[in-house]
Amino acid sequence: MKNKILLGLLFLTVALQSRGQKNIQKKVTIESVLKEMVNREQLSQFPTSNYKSLQASSYNRESVSPKLPGWFADSDGVGFIRTEVINGKTEWVIMEDQGPGCITRLWAVCFYYGLNNVTGANIKFYLDGAKEPVINTNFFNLVQGKGFIESPFGETSTRAGNLYFPIPYAKSCKITMDNKAFYNIINYRKYPKGTPVETFTMEQFNQTKALRDKVGKELVHPTNATGNAIERNQTIEAGKEVTIDLPKGNNAVKQFEITIKNKENIPNLLRSVVLTATFDKEQTIWAPVGDFFNNVGKQQPYTMWEREVTKQGTMICRWVMPYQKEATISLKNLGATAADVSIKMITAPMIWQSNSMHFHATWRMDEPYPTFPLFDWNFLEAQGKGVVVGDEFTALNPSEGWWGEGDEKIYVDDDFKRNFPSHFGTGTEDYYGWAGGVVPTPNDEFSKPFLGNIIVGEQNAMGYNVCSRTRVLDAIPFEKRIKFDMEASCGTRSSWFFLQYTQTTFWYAISGVKHNRLPLPEMAAKPLPTLQELRSKVENAKKKQYVVDGAVEAELYKVRTKSNSVIENLEEFSIWGEISNGKMLNLWFEKADDYAEFIITEQFEKSKLQMCTTVGPTCGAFDIYVNGIKKTIQNFNTHHSGMVTPLIQLGECEPVDNTFTIRLVYKGKPTNAEGNRKQYGLGIDYFLIENNFLKGGKN
User: Fold this and answer.
1) How do strand 273-279 and strand 629-635 relate by DSSP bridges?
2) How far is residue 188's CA from residue 168's CA, in Å, rounded to a whole number?
């Protein structure tokens, strides 16, 4: 009788899932996407609708290539596509798409060109080529749930707001602001041509009241799963593990709970007790339980849609994790003290389908790194087929101040051919749904269904800071390959200032996917890094002078010839960053075609030249020549001051008379320059010279 009941449940599950899969092929509507928002099982299946997840944002358009200056440009709040005159008034186009699609998320900083202006501009949605917007409302009210869309689909976070209500369109979408663009991020789905979509209207929105209430309740108060429960209470000695064998055959983990019941040493146990899982003989989860559950440095209660930590310290995961034949989940204690734990697994039958995916959680931890020069820090790179559904990010900050300036850069499939990400953000805190403007404090902590600023350093962000994001409607499918980077960038840019990152990525994948995140038992086994240790490292590094290895320091070379109006050392450049050897060649220009020339001697063979300079609002635009050959045309005028990253590439150069003659020709006041300055200049920090003889440019 028991077997018959189980068989009946299995066939019922098949029927329901088959019906769910057919629904994906039906018309995309507000209702269908709302239901998808809380369908945990559907999230574990590769989307049969084959949509692409894309992003529009106000990132700085000076970022055009990882090989060119501007790749790490800040001032990300002013980018837009173009302006248009509509009905006699100028509007700023911040997103547009041709073909069927659906807006899945909007974020906006909720102050406008200054902390005192919390009114901002109106946002307008023009769908399917309509001349009048279907939505025309205050941007800040919309994303904060203060307009016709209410909480939890639009909510205030910290100095920002996030809208998660789906806005589908059949033919096209154009979103504008009626005043100049400011910080914004828009995530949307682009469906294949021919996908039937019912375009958003206010009439249809009003008809979804009952469904909105139901979905909203589920998002705020997630329902606990039911099914076959397996419970263990066990003390895991140092170096030991406990493994739970899950039921054989087509099943899924619907929910699991972990509690560390120790009264002492909790921060270290959260790192040294590692969660692992093997589904169908493939290890897909390897992460410390604290990082998996956004608790690093301490236990912190919060509630998100798929993870939760209760006030009693119980850590709950509600991501559905299907498997075809067999699975095990383990806790391994890599630390030095015993861990007293309780574990509860809830499983239920779930038919394995052709698009079913295994759940992955991968973890990265590095030693502290210097915050200058800037670079892209990788979360995950994977080859195969899957969907990214969330991440957790931790920064250990050694001082009071801002730690999270970096933008996310996510490359998916065809992005690799054009070497530019389809997701380019505006700042780390923006990616996680809140906003800077001031140094954060614990008062800025929050958790929402899909977003969390879970832990903020207790003294103006000094200490551990933990953010998290869940992706459902804005999940990122990849057919062949994905690379998820975050700029390693903060408010202090110096070789002596160190941060320490750890990070967990949550994703599903078809069996056989390859990725770059191998287990790191030696890192998890270490005592949890402390604030005091990192501060000591910073103080020791301050004692050392920053010098780029192999740099040919420009300040060591005198200007050989120049135009009469060119002035050396007219004023100091404001620099965000650090200069090699503490000095630079400092030149100022006034008239178009003014020039300055200097030579690097004792060069005997063909070499590759690179050049490090300043950028900023007082910098000019120049043609750069090497031995009479124009090598590049570069505008160094940017809104924020700093050092160029990556370096200016001057290419392969042949020495003439054993020298490289560098000539800068000023092109006149840059077109994007602000103010009415008379002179614009350039600070030259160093050159790197690479050839067979001078390894790294060492003379």
Assistant:
1) unpaired
2) 9
- pTM as predicted: 0.90
88 backbone dihedrals φ, ψ, rounded to 5°: 85, 0
Residue 188 near residue 104, CB atoms below 8 Å: yes
In this predicted model, what pLDDT tens digit does every residue of 590-627 receive, in sequence order?
999 999 999 998 888 899 999 999 999 999 999 999 99
Summarised one tens digit per residue, pLDDT across range 504-520 is: 999 999 999 999 999 99
Ramachandran bin of 622, using left for φ above 0, alpha for ψ from -120 to 50, beta for the remaining angles:
beta
User: Which of 19-33, 151-165, 441-455 is predicted least confidently?
Assistant: 19-33
C-alpha distances (whole Å) from 101 to each of 93, 191, 528, 558 are 17, 5, 45, 59
Of 280, 279, 289, the C-alpha closest to 256 is 289
Q: In angstroms, what is the C-alpha Rg of the chain? A: 28
Q: Residue 365 is encoded by which pair of tokens?
A: 């931890």
Q: What is the pLDDT of residue 429?
A: 97
Q: Which residue has the tokens 């790197």?
A: 688
Pairing of strands 498-509, 358-365: antiparallel
Q: Rounded CA gap, 637 and 85, in Å?
A: 28
Taking a C-beta distance cutoff of 8 angstroms, is the pair 472, 450 a contact? Answer: yes
11, pLDDT greater than 50:
no
Enter the tokens of residue 478.
């990849």
Instruction: Kindly tell me the burial class for residue 378, based on how many C-beta atoms sit within 10 Å of its own C-beta (0-12, 13-18, 19 or more).
Output: middle
Q: Which tokens sit at 153?
A: 């689909």
